[in-house]
Description:
- Chains A, B: GO terms for molecular function: DNA binding.
- Chains A, B: Pfam families: cNMP_binding, HTH_Crp_2.
- The structure is a homodimer of 260-residue chains.
- By secondary structure, the first copy, chain A, is α+β, with helices and mostly antiparallel strands.
- The first copy, chain A, folds into two domains: 17-153, Jelly Rolls, CATH 2.60.120; 166-253, Winged helix-like DNA-binding domain superfamily/Winged helix DNA-binding domain (Arc Repressor Mutant, subunit A).
- Helices cover 42% and strands 20% of the residues of chain A.
- Chain A is built from nine helices and ten strands.
- The first copy, chain A, has helices at 17-22, 24-33, 38-47, 128-137, 139-165, 168-185, 200-207, 211-223, 239-245, and strands spanning 48-54, 59-61, 69-75, 78-83, 89-95, 114-117, 121-127, 193-195, 227-230, 233-236.
- In chain A, the strands form three sheets. In chain A, strands 2-6-4-5 form a four-stranded antiparallel β-sheet. The first copy, chain A, has a three-stranded antiparallel β-sheet with strand order 1-7-3.
- Chain A is globular, with a radius of gyration of 18 Å.
- The structure holds a DNA duplex (30 and 30 nucleotides).
Amino acid sequence: MKxxxxxxxxRPAIAxxxxxxxxxxxxxKLRSFDHVADEDxxxxxxxxxxxxxxxxxxxxxxxxxxPPHISALLEGWAGRYKILRNGARQITALYLPGDFIDLxxxxxxxxxxxxxxxxxxxxxxxxxxxxxxxxxxEPRLTRLLWRSTLAAAxxxxxxxxxxxxxxxxxxxxxxxxxxxxxxKAVRLADNHRFCCPITQLTLADTLGLSTVHLNRSIQALRAxxxxxxxxxxxxxxxxxxxxxxxxxDPTYLQMNEPVG
Amino acid sequence: MKxxxxxxxxRPAIAxxxxxxxxxxxxxKLRSFDHVADEDxxxxxxxxxxxxxxxxxxxxxxxxxxPPHISALLEGWAGRYKILRNGARQITALYLPGDFIDLxxxxxxxxxxxxxxxxxxxxxxxxxxxxxxxxxxEPRLTRLLWRSTLAAAxxxxxxxxxxxxxxxxxxxxxxxxxxxxxxKAVRLADNHRFCCPITQLTLADTLGLSTVHLNRSIQALRAxxxxxxxxxxxxxxxxxxxxxxxxxDPTYLQMNEPVG
DNA sequence: CGGAGTATTGAGTGACATCAACGCGCGTGG
DNA sequence: CCACGCGCGTTGATGTCACTCAATACTCCG
Lengths: 260, 260
């Protein structure tokens, strides 16, 4: 666990034009699931009360504390994690731009896990009250938001399969396919290339591997000419084989458009 | 994968008195999360269109097929699973009496996993249309159902932590604690004893272990005098130590009452 | 130019998997 | 009632994937 300097910049409560256009990424994400009515877009966008910025390694949600609002990620990568007594850390979710981070927190749920920024991040906030109101008056939008939490749960199940049954190499391939597919859905990746701002340590904690072994798994993928990985630039040089090796089937991501 | 003889017994669509009392277990489960209004109980119970019975090893949801209705488990244990090319099976969820099995299926989600009965099971059905209607007119009940899917997601994250970071023995201890706690919440367990109708093979596929190693993990727990396990009867002889060894914190189960 | 963080490599160890055999309880059929 | 077979639990021997420890490179940054 790194230091936790939370550089939060509160904005005025009235959604500005620029704020709204930043929020587009969230709409793009929701549209990747299904058609979204313009009216629902308006309702959701106007529910945003402000944005916050986080430095790398800043704590977005502190373990054990229920945040006073729900957040959607506008920029950067973040992740949910849990720490065990021996210091081991498991990343249980990776949040990419457009993802809701803790949509579940508006229901009086308790969690003992935290959310950390893996790169510089910006989030948009919606108050619990606003979301509660949406569930009262906007059933269609409510179903859409519910659905986005269900897609997250399906991703959890896929990761369970990776960790329980797949080899380190296959799991790594699978995760790379997932990240590319999710980024592409919000137009942050294309041509089998994407920017991966997180370290191998983070990826290792996600896959339940040691950094050493993850590194060797990545190198095995390189040796097979399936990927290139230089600093934070990842290029998938053989998508079909990577998909095959990782047994990646994007069905669980619930997207309505094909991948390529 | 065993044979799949689906002995389904359809009942008339009008909920009978006995059917309604069977459905009580689902209400008990929902009440374990939060207070449930009597009106919501009525609405939900009247949405039940019938029950079905399944033999051990019967397929409750066939992989790849979207079921025409959603199901809640009234009796028996079931589980969601995914099979890989090499035949490896990962159990991604264990369903106990009172749990909704595929509450997510009413939203047009696709899944390539299946649900299988681990013991004789009975389910109650609610049509997608009824559930859709509930989301239109019953926001409070909708939030409650949403919440139950969020608790399932939190359980997935806990299992990710088990599989990624915990030893086989600690993970086994954790799962035993979880099962007892969940069963106790619906009054199917007490006094640190419960009936576990599933085989070690199933538990091993849940924890991502081989049967041999799971068996040795269980025996280690026995040797420490933490549990007794004879046929399908499990007795936790030292709850505090089992909780400690498995680092079990029931927070993620979202229950509003203490455990003991 | 030094230092911190990250990536990479090597060597040794350990946890868990695999393979194989045996016991045990239970249901079934003779 | 017993013989048989099947599913499941248990045990031992052996193999291997991934972890740990440790050291070295690379890159960025001050």
